[in-house]
Amino acid sequence: MAGRFKICLIAVCICVLLPALSCLAVTTFEIYEASALNQVIKRNTLIVGMEVKFFPFEYTDADGRPIGFDVDLAKLAAQELGVRIEIKDMEFSGLIPALQGGKIDMIISGMTRTPARAKTVAFTQPYFETGLCALISNKRAPEVSEIGQLNAEGRILAVKLGATGDLVAARLFPKAEVKRFKEETACALEVVSGRADAFIYDKLSIERHHAQNLQTTRAILRPFTYEPYAIAIKSGDFDFLNWLNIFLETIKADGRYQELQKKYFNDL
Ligand code: ARG
Fold first, then answer.
1. How far, in whole angstroms, is CA 60 from its chain's centroid?
2. Is domain 30-129+228-265 annotated with CATH 3.40.190.10?
3. How remote is the CA of residue 228 from the centroid of ligand 1, in Å?
4. 126, 156, 190, 226: most buried by Cβ count inside 10 Å?
């Protein structure tokens, strides 16, 4: 009896459980099929999300067309993939949700890879390294010459909503009041007009706002954080991540990356 029961059990396993399990198992081919790498090639278009308001990485020319370091980088990637490019301009805080919702294949938007963001999206190796700096108001903060002085009662810091400047301000300057604005230009205006002591943002942007407002602002240009910019894609897509890292490594080695640097950063 026991022997028969065993045979029955084995038969059930072979006939029912094994086929059911093999249905559940995902093959490597299916993983590749679902990869953005494969989707992009199939539809012949790479869809890139960015907020086109971040000089010199993404901004617009006189005709309103997106230009900049990131735009050219995205175009190079599309060229290497042999597909067309579509750029979707959207609010910075909407980029990660758009990626997760499948509306874009990747983000190139001067986005810093941080441990917090890397919990929800995957990042490539960095393609640019910089740090946060401060634009200082001559009117409100004439005595401030180093970053630590901003951490004091009564100081007002302007930051761009959802940017790393926003994410670190409360931690690094707990005594100051942090005011959040959607637009980078609004943050700079707060400092220029003397409503805020400082604007905390990425170095090249701070440098530019200072150059445009020499009478009303100063700039502390020694970065006080590490900001590695990287391309973000959906978590779990190792095929696309691998391709993008090979792409970045290749253009850094063959001179195309340096060409872009010359084009956008030479006279900064
Ligand atoms: N590096 C900063 C961050 O990741 C600011 C990026 C802003 N980029 C933009 N396209 N507006 O939060």
1. 19
2. yes
3. 11
4. 190
Alpha helix (H) residue ranges in 82-227: 95-100, 164-172, 184-192, 203-212
Ligand 1 pocket mutation pick from 70, 109, 133 by most atoms within 8 angstroms of CB: 109
CA 229 to ligand 1 center in whole angstroms: 9
Please name the fold of domain 132-225.
D-Maltodextrin-Binding Protein; domain 2 (3.40.190)
Instruction: Kindly give the confidence (pLDDT) of every residue in the chain, 268 residues in length, as a single tens digit, with 9 standing for 90 and above.
Output: 566 767 666 666 566 666 666 667 899 999 999 999 999 999 999 999 999 999 999 999 999 999 999 999 999 999 999 999 999 999 999 999 999 999 999 999 999 999 999 999 999 999 999 999 999 999 999 999 999 999 999 999 999 999 999 999 999 999 999 999 999 999 999 999 999 999 999 999 999 999 999 999 999 999 999 999 999 999 999 999 999 999 999 999 999 999 999 999 986 5
Residue 74 CA to ligand 1 center (angstroms) comes to 16
Closest ligand 1 atom number to CA of residue 70: 10
Domain boundaries, the chain: 30-129+228-265, 132-225
Same fold: 30-129+228-265 with 132-225: yes
Query: What is the Cα 64 distance to its own chain's centre?
Result: 22
Q: Could you tell me if 203 and 182 are in contact, meaning their C-beta atoms sit under 8 angstroms apart?
A: no
